[in-house]
Amino acid sequence: RSRAGRFEIGPFVYRINNTDVQLPAVAVTVVSPGETPDAENDQQDLLFAELVVSPTNLFSQQVFDLQFNLFAADGINLGRDLSVLNMPSMGLAVQPMQDLGTERVARNNRIYTMRRFAAKATALSAGHMDLAPVLRVQVLVPRERRRSRDPFFGDFDPFEAFFGRVEAQSVDVSVSPLTL
Fold first, then answer.
1. pLDDT for 129-144, tens place per residue?
2. Cα–Cα–Cα angle for 116, 124, 59, nearest 5°?
3. CA distances (Å), 122 to each of 20, 37, 50, 53, 116, in order?
4. What residues pair up with 107 in beta bridges, in sequence order?
5. What is the dihedral of CA 104, 105, 106, 111, to 10 degrees?
6. Residue 144: CB partners within 8 Å, gap ≥ 6?
7. Is the bond preceding 11 in cis, omega lying within 30 degrees of 0?
8. Residue 9 in contact with residue 25, Cβ under 8 Å?
């Protein structure tokens, strides 16, 4: 039988290739049957993304704006590498993304570093498109500090990188045919 309440799991330390990777504790809220969780808990993720499409009602061959916002909680270090996956391969042409920089923002009583990326896209054919991108991001984890005996190839990079996938909420785009 489960109990309702707020519980903490972790922290954990994993050893991977002689390197300790520390994962922070995670708070979990369990609600009673029939209850709904607070909206505040929806944004408690350490890393999440959103897609902003403007406009969403288009004509065929119309150019429109895509903006990807990547939110990282304090303590999450992100690398420069980022790619967008899971975009439609037909009916849409997307130009290369431009990095619009970072800023600190508050979401549901928590501070995040938001990285913004923008691209122009062209709707190539009429119909409905469900844009549900997945951002492939580089997450940097501090390496274990140990002294190297090699003066030339010692601990040059203090971080070890791995790639994670962050799903953005889908956006429905309607494309009407051009009429002459």
1. 999 999 998 888 776 6
2. 85
3. 46, 39, 20, 12, 20
4. 110
5. -30
6. 18, 19, 20
7. yes
8. yes
